[in-house]
Each structure stands twice: as C-alpha cells, then as structure tokens.
Design goal:
With 358 residues, this protein is α/β, with parallel strands linked by helices. The protein is built from 17 helices and eight strands. It has helices at residues 7-12, 28-37, 52-59, 65-75, 82-98, 110-114, 120-138, 154-161, 164-171, 193-201, 216-226, 241-250, 258-263, 275-281, 300-311, 315-327, 333-357, and strands spanning 15-17, 101-108, 141-149, 177-181, 205-210, 230-233, 253-256, 285-287. The structure holds adenine and zinc ion.
Length: 358
C-alpha cells in the first residue's frame, strides 16, 4: 500500500495527546517576543540566542536529553504573566486542534517556574483561560498534569506538592495527575516513592517518564515503586521481553514520542523505535510530540506521518493505536465514547474507500 495514501486518514483520526510539555511548545518566535516584552535578557555568551535562525539551528544539534533540557529551561524563563501562559497554551491548542487532536493532557513543570519567582496562581490563571477557550472555541477537551523534576531533591517535590494553592488545584480538579520528568540517568523512580504515595492518597492519576534515556530497570522501578497508571516514553521496555509481556497484560499505556527519541539521540533512526515489537506484543501505546517547538516544529500529526512512512501500518493497526489512546485517557467516559464513535465511523469509511479503489 502506498504509504502517503493514509495521510488524510491520519489527519482525521480523533487523536488524544498524552505527552506534551507545554513549555516545550514555546516556539522560538514566541520566545523572542516574550523576552522583549518582559525585558528578559537571554544568555549573551551563547550565540544560539543571537537570532531565531541561530536558535533553530542549535535545536537541530541536540546531543542528548540534558543538552536539550539546558535550552528548555532557558526558554521558559521568558514566561512571566498569566497572559504569557495563556498565549503559550492557546497557541498549542490551536495547532493541535487543526491536526485532529480531540483531547489533550498537557504536562507543566511547576518547580521550574516557582524557582524563578513565578507563582503557582500565575500558571493556573493562564492555563485556565486557555483551557476554557480550547473547550469553547475549538471543542477540545484538555487536562493538566503536574510534572516534578527528578534532578531536584525529592524533598523539594514534596514541599511543592503540599503547598496550599497546589493542593487546592488537585482538589478542585484543575490538575488531574502528576508526572516525573527532566534528566533521567542517575535519578531512579524510587527516589520519588513518597511523593507518589501522597498522590495516591489524593486519588490523583500517576505517570512518570521512564526508559527514555534510562534503562528498562527504571520502567520496572516506576511500576513497582510509584504505582503508575501510565509510562511516558517506555522506549527501553522492548529490552525485557518478560516485563513487556507484563505491561501488555496489565494494559498500561506507553506514551511514545518517536521524533523526540530521534532528535535527542535516544535512537539512531525512527525504525529503531520498537513500534512493531509493541504492536506484536499487544503493548498499548499512544503517539505524541513531547516538545514540538524544540524538535523542528513537529507536532502530533508529524509524528503519526513519520511512523506511517517508517512502519507502513494498516488501517486496523492505526485503529488499535488510536483506540488505545482514547481508552488510556483520563477524560470522562462520555468523552471517550464520543471519540470512539468518530473513530469507528472513520475506519468504516476508509475501509470501504480502500476496497473500492483496490
Ligand atoms: N523529553 C523529556 N524528557 C524528560 N523531561 C522532559 N522535560 C521536557 N521534555 C522532556
Ligand atoms: Zn517528555
């Protein structure tokens, strides 16, 4: 089958995005615009910040997760007011809606903002405005997931988790769950066991980055120590057949980010992402964009298309992927049913179309 033939189908699929760091959707144009507006001086000893083109060129040469994170944390320093956070999130929601995202669960990094003096209420105010607009202007449902930074001491994550305004955002349902991100190597999941135990007590959803740059043992550790409902990346799960079978049996969703893995040199080429292995083993996964503004402006549909070009999947395999994403989402049952209805109709029509043209 012609690989590009399915691109309009991929575009129409009712997609759920589960792995998108909202700070990673800060395009260089907005970064420079907000730096000027907020009088933020970008590093003068790094020529990457001399122009948008220079910055974009630097983004093409990431050598590792940590090399990328260096730019990611500098980039977010331009976000100061609630309006900045609202603009950032709204620009992402608009791009996502255009490429068929029906539902987005977005990560944000509260510690990275609190550390530089931006209050939690500033973030919440901005995100709430954008989420309201996404629902009313784009018909898109959205949820917030608060990620904790594993390169900071676990005690810091616990004190932020317990701040009264943070607890209030959980109780009010503004934030539905927690995640764990940033540098992975040397920061095994069990260091955050106490944080996740508190999240469990509050009945929050739990996910964690594991097996992106770190070994498959970190995936086992995250499952055993943190009681996670989802695994972010989970690229290295394919290194352990037994654990892979267990994850498939449990139905735990991996949130894969194929183009991110290539850009951050976690794999050499897209064909090294174990998409085929996961499908054959019955491991559920969704496909996501991670930090699209840092990865060549490749958003979710670009990831779907790149996967199709590399793996030549069938309509039924895409149905499986899309359905796993819908079922693994943290939205309401009725929203899931709506998306499954759209998916079933789309697949029915495309099967007929391909049969007629065969
Ligand atoms: N890909 C990634 N891995 C870990 N932490 C991150 N923070 C933003 N993007 C990330
Ligand atoms: Zn990520």
């Amino acid at each position: 089958m012609c690989k590009t033939l399915l691109h309009p189908f991929l575009e129409s699929l009712p997609k759920c995005e589960h792995h998108l760091h909202i700070e990673g959707s800060l395009e260089p144009s907005l970064l420079f615009e907000l730096a000027a507006k907020n009088n933020i001086v970008l590093p003068q000893d790094d020529e990457a910040f001399e122009s948008q083109d220079a910055l974009q060129a630097r983004y093409k040469r990431f050598t590792s997760l940590d090399d990328f994170l260096h730019y990611y944390y500098i980039g977010m320093s331009v976000l100061i007011t609630p309006e900045d956070f609202a603009q950032l999130a709204m620009e992402y929601f608009q791009k996502a809606a255009k490429t068929g995202v029906y539902h987005a669960e977005i990560f944000f990094d509260p510690q990275a903002h609190l550390e530089r003096g931006v209050s939690y209420s500033t973030l919440m105010e901005g995100f709430t405005t954008a989420r309201y607009r996404a629902q009313h202007e784009l018909g898109m449902t959205t949820l917030l997931v608060s990620c904790f930074l594993r390169h900071l001491p676990p005690t810091n994550s616990i004190s932020v988790f317990n701040q009264p305004d943070v607890l209030k955002s959980y109780r009010a349902g503004q934030v539905v769950g927690i995640g764990l991100d940033s540098s992975e190597k040397d920061f095994p999941p069990h260091l955050f066991k106490d944080l996740y135990a508190m999240a469990t007590t509050l009945k929050l959803r739990r996910t964690a980055h594991a097996g992106e740059e770190g070994p498959v043992e970190y995936i086992r550790d995250a499952l055993e120590s943190l009681g996670i409902d989802r695994i972010d990346h989970g690229l290295h799960l394919a290194d352990d057949e037994e654990l892979m079978a267990l994850v498939a049996k449990r139905g735990t969703l991996l949130t894969l980010c194929p183009l991110s893995n290539v850009v951050l040199k976690c794999v050499e080429t897209l064909s090294d992402v174990p998409i085929r292995k996961f499908l054959d083993a019955g491991v559920k996964f969704s496909i996501n964009s991670d930090d699209p503004a840092y990865f060549g402006g490749n958003y979710i549909l670009d990831n779907y298309c790149a996967v199709q070009e590399t793996f030549d999947l069938s309509i039924d395999e895409w149905k499986t992927i899309c359905r796993s994403g819908i079922e693994g989402s943290w939205c309401t049952t009725s929203r899931k049913a709506e998306m499954i209805g759209v998916l079933d109709d789309l697949v029915y029509n495309w099967r007929r179309k391909l049969r007629v043209s065969a």
